[in-house]
């Protein structure tokens, strides 16, 4: 993997210093201070899993080659590792916004294939991980800094990650596009969700891009301004929101029985036969 | 619809003049000339249809309220009209990159609900439409200009649209992410596809974002640099590419028998019973 990354990075050197206001995968050039020679060339890739409707985000700093995957899905680890490699990056962190109930995190499988990769999740999630975050903690990826904001309510360990320099916020299941995560299990609390979203997300600049963990209707991103004005749930009064969430009649999540025990161990559980086969296939491919 | 747009536009006035390098839905601020007072506030929304794996793109100018949908899907017309309305835009054009064989274009249904909307496709496609384009023609949406580039090979009427000011190219089925459209029907020709992509797409600046009509693996965008260096088909020699495409054994497209006759009329055909029901549902909702 490191050799592949090094080789692939050569391919990318020629476009590293271009003046690119917005390009590949929402890639933007970030200037640290006013000196262009200090530019951090950020890579931001948005990936989708059609089985669980999960978005996985790759955030990387092409100037150092460091990258993090946010909310990886175990069944997409082969694809995700290929993208990291293709773009000449090395995976530093597998980050989760919360302990998911609808899919098994890719953190554990990614760690098995990239020994230097560390799993990251909020301490309040109750999950095991190499790095257990508190509100205000900064996840550093090369020259990029992800600020951890506590956005509980869907679960009591939900956090959002803010990449201020690029105007991006990864909201997990706290804010979905024109929706929000359910609050009827995993210590969910509608009032807590309403308060944390209004305090931590809607206080961000209007133009910040909202990148959620899921979408079920084909939307790919939103903005703070849109969700503040157009979200049919979160624009209700606190009392109306609580009543609305109480009245939802939702199905039992189809993967919860497999996902919660696995994600409590942040992907470090004994793999299922399917995922064991995937692991062996990946190992063979790397041999 | 016009009243809704007007009302919704009020919601957006407060963020119209923000300095936003990159935000909602890949939204960027484009400066025409050096005068900030002449800024065109662009809206660019990426939407996905999970049944046909089709990306539909909304491109709009928030300073004039004009918008165009690129490659709309008939089953997603309700969603797409809602997004246009939510963002305070009015649909001027329903644009297609080519005569699709895998889904029915939303052009006809959109025209029935937005009388001022005009359907747009390349004359070489052989399809009927209000506007039939030739290479070099410019599609103007407010202050935005989409350049039409002929990229035949998947079909002989395929075009790509280049939004130079934002560094975006909508490639239809000519360039897919790490792939390309099939060339085994609809006057497909592998050599023609190889030549047109290398001439019209790979000649664009490396940092331009490639936005295809489909993706089947959860990728959402790419760049000219990535496809020039990483596309496993289009990085082959011309002869190798032709052989590779000849050797593909692909299934018969599942919707081709419904899609081709419908798309030849650019959505202006007699609607199927399903789509008739959708049309009536939409009509009722607007009443």
Overview of this protein structure:
The structure is a homodimer. With about 290 residues, the first copy, chain A, is of the alpha/beta class. The first copy, chain A, has a single domain, classed as Ribonuclease Z/Hydroxyacylglutathione hydrolase-like (Metallo-beta-lactamase, Chain A), CATH 3.60.15.10. Helix content of chain A is about 30%, strand content about 25%. In chain A, strands 1-2-3-4-5-6-7 form a 7-stranded mixed sheet, covered by helices on one side. In chain A, a hairpin with a 4-residue loop joins strand 2 (about 40-50) and strand 3 (about 55-60). In chain A, helix 4 (about 190-200) packs across helix 6 (about 240-245). Chain A starts with a helix and ends with a helix. Chains A and B meet through strand 2, strand 13 and helix 5 of A and strand 2, strand 13 and helix 5 of B.
CATH fold-level label of chain A: Metallo-beta-lactamase, Chain A
> Which regions of chain A have little confidence, pLDDT < 50, spanning 5+ residues?
1-38
Encode the helix/strand succession of chain A as letters. Answer: HEEEEHEHEEEEEEHEEHHHH
Rg over alpha carbons of chain A:
19 Å
The first-to-last residue Cα distance of chain A is 10 Å
- How much helix, percentage-wise, in residues of chain A? 25-40%
Which architecture name of chain A does CATH use? Answer: 4-Layer Sandwich
Number of domains of chain A: 1
CATH superfamily of chain A: Ribonuclease Z/Hydroxyacylglutathione hydrolase-like
State the helix count of chain A.
Answer: 8
Largest interface: A-B, 42 and 43 residues
Strand line-up in the sheet with most strands of chain A = 1-2-3-4-5-6-7
Cofactor (chains A, B): Fe(2+)
InterPro entries (chains A, B): Metallo-B-lactamas, Mito_Persulfide_Diox, POD-like_MBL-fold, RibonucZ/Hydroxyglut_hydro
EC number (chains A, B): 1.13.11.18
Pfam family, one (chains A, B): Lactamase_B
């Amino acid at each position: 993997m490191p050799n592949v990354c090094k080789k692939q990075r050569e391919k990318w050197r020629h476009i590293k210093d271009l003046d690119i206001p917005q390009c590949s995968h929402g890639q933007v050039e970030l200037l640290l201070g006013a000196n262009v020679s200090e530019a951090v060339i950020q890579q931001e890739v948005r990936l989708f899993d059609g089985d669980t409707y999960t978005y996985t985000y790759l955030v990387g700093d092409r100037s150092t080659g460091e990258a993090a995957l946010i909310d990886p899905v175990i069944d997409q680890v082969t694809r995700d590792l290929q993208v990291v490699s293709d773009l000449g990056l090395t995976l530093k962190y597998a980050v989760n916004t919360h302990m998911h109930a609808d899919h098994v995190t890719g953190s554990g499988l990614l760690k098995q294939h990239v020994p230097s990769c560390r799993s990251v999740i909020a301490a309040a999630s109750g999950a095991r991980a190499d790095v257990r975050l508190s509100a205000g903690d900064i996840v550093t990826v090369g020259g990029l800094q992800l600020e951890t904001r506590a956005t509980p309510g869907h679960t009591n360990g939900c956090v959002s990650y803010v990449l201020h320099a690029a105007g991006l916020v990864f909201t997990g299941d706290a804010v979905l596009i024109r929706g929000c995560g359910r609050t009827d299990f995993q210590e969910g609390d509608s009032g807590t969700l309403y308060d944390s979203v209004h305090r931590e997300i809607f206080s961000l600049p209007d133009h910040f891009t909202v990148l959620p963990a899921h979408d079920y209707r084909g939307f790919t991103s939103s903005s703070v301004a849109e969700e503040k004005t157009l979200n049919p749930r979160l624009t209700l009064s606190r009392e109306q929101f609580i009543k609305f969430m109480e009245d939802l009649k939702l199905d039992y999540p189809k993967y919860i029985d497999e996902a919660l025990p696995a994600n409590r161990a942040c992907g470090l559980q004994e793999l299922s036969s399917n995922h064991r086969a995937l692991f062996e296939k990946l190992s063979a491919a790397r041999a």
